[in-house]
Amino acid sequence: MKKTYLYTFLGIAINAAGNSLTIVTNLGSLLWPASIVNIMHAMHWSMSLSIFTEGMIVSFATILLEKHPSWKMWLDELIFLVPYSLLMQLFATGYRTVGIDQLAFMPRLAFDLLGFIISFAGLVMYSDCAWCFHPHDILSTCLKTKWNPKFMKLFNLIIPLLIIFALFFKNHTIYALHVGTIIGLLFQNRISEFFEIEYSRLLRI
Q1: pTM reported for the whole predicted model
Q2: What separation in angstroms does the CA of 80 have from each of 10, 92, 105, 135, 190?
Q3: Helix and strand tally (H, E) in the chain?
Q4: Model confidence pLDDT, tens digit, residues 144-159
Q5: Does 40 score more than 70 pLDDT?
Q6: CA dist., res. 89 & res. 97, Å (int)
Q7: How far is the C-alpha of 29 from the C-alpha of 183, rounded, in Å?
Q8: At 80, which helix (H) or strand (E)?
Q9: Which of 56, 81, 99, 140 is most buried, by CB atoms within 10 Å?
Q10: Which of 72, 25, 35 is nearest to 55 (CA)?
Q11: Domain map of the chain by residue range?
């Protein structure tokens, strides 16, 4: 059980390190993180507050969708969100301190793609532990169960894009939606499958 907790928090930290790197480069994050960045700029909140608040809203939305909501699952999401939101802020500050956000286009793109790889590795690690999850993971499972996988994919594609484009009228620019977003979406499954295989091998050693 101790290993489960250790690998879960290690996975959360790795995922936060990767996602924050894609945000700092501003060359493309996955859609939900990108929508949070645009919320952050629109509301003038810190990254940690934006991530935590958005996560709690998603969590309560899932509770409303569930016929028999589990408050234990809500607590597990809270256990995930607290360290995740704080680590995202910490890593982002560190990346900006060393000047990653000031690099030329190609080095930033390289760091952006590295961020995707790191974040997918963390996602696989904490998902495999199956202890606590990001609220978006739980919402996706709920949508897949109540409707179907196609609806879940469309929801996770359309809703964050609507948020981003709606906030454009307040921000007058779009953050974290760039070429890296397309690359990340195209290769997410392949990279995640690779880490699932490697993580399974690691556990057998």
Answers
A1: 0.93
A2: 11, 18, 33, 8, 25
A3: 8, 0
A4: 988 889 999 999 999 9
A5: yes
A6: 12
A7: 10
A8: helix 71-97
A9: 81
A10: 35
A11: 2-204
